[in-house]
Write a structure and sequence with these properties.
mainly alpha; DNA polymerase, domain 1; 2 domains
Length: 116
């Protein structure tokens, strides 16, 4: 059987963790890669699932020009809480975000990372 890729979509680590839980319920046993991934996510995912979803909604609501879902997912994974950290994360992409928008992003992230 040759699976075909229908669509590629960027996801953050919280969405990945949710998918692993679904696979675990369905198959009851994870393969070695999925187990390692699950261990990694348990160690490094610092937000609750609901907080990650709310942060994603907040970042989408900012309506920052040229900021796409893959950028937002990277921001959710790394959780930059200063405008400088936002700029560093987005340097890997062909996107320029203004200082004001970097501050908006950092402020949105900071609301969720204060308790971390």
């Amino acid at each position: 059987m040759n699976p075909k890729i229908i669509e590629e979509e960027s996801i953050n680590m919280y969405d990945l963790y949710k998918e692993i839980k679904i696979i675990k319920k369905r198959d009851e046993e994870l393969n070695i890669r999925a187990k390692k991934t699950e261990e990694y996510l348990q160690d490094f995912a610092s937000l609750k699932m609901k907080e990650a979803e709310d942060l994603k909604k907040d970042l989408l609501a900012l309506e920052i020009p040229r900021l796409k879902l893959n950028h937002i997912n990277k921001i959710i994974d790394v959780l930059p809480d200063t405008p400088e950290e936002v700029k560093i994360i987005l340097q890997g992409y062909t996107i320029t975000v203004s200082k004001e928008n970097s501050k908006k992003i950092a402020d949105a992230v900071a609301k969720y990372t204060v308790s971390v």
